[in-house]
Amino acid sequence: MGTTAESPRRITMTPAARRALEAAARLFYERGIHAVGVDLIAAEAGVTKKTLYDRFGSKEQIVVEYLADRDERWRAFLDERLDAAGPDPRERVLVVFDASRAWARDSSPKGCSMVNAHAEISDPAHPAHPIIIGQKQWMLALFTGLAADIAPDEPAGLARALMLLHEGALVAHGLGIFPDAIGHAREQARALLA
Q: Residues near 144 by Cβ (< 8 Å), separated by ≥ 6?
């Protein structure tokens, strides 16, 4: 499975911090992390800049909370669908693509928030970097676990192929390269699993 990224420090959310995080999440996703300042987050959340710094300490910590929250929600969303899926590992792989398609439609019209964040945060020293990398390591581990039941002699190769299809589809979706990129990737995954 490889190594997993170190867990970042998290804060306890107060109602004001939650409002600020919701505003920051919307702004970061819509406009980009570097394009959004704490003044705008505070104004959108209806809190003072002092409240933001008292609660989060820095913009970097707001970014950590944004990405960690998004990752937690994605994992719960996917886990719920996998729990409802049958035991067939091939069908479970396709459920991952189905979940990504639904998530992208409802929560990620501009593509994967982790991929988008990595375009802005590629420095491993940034406290949000482990969340970005950790989310993708988790996805690879998920595909590897599913692949072990399908191709026990070579699960890593199958898992990497599935991961490339999945991640490529997320990028193509976010860029609007062609309609239903995730659905197309799902069909390619189905062919690969046959």
A: 1, 155, 156, 159
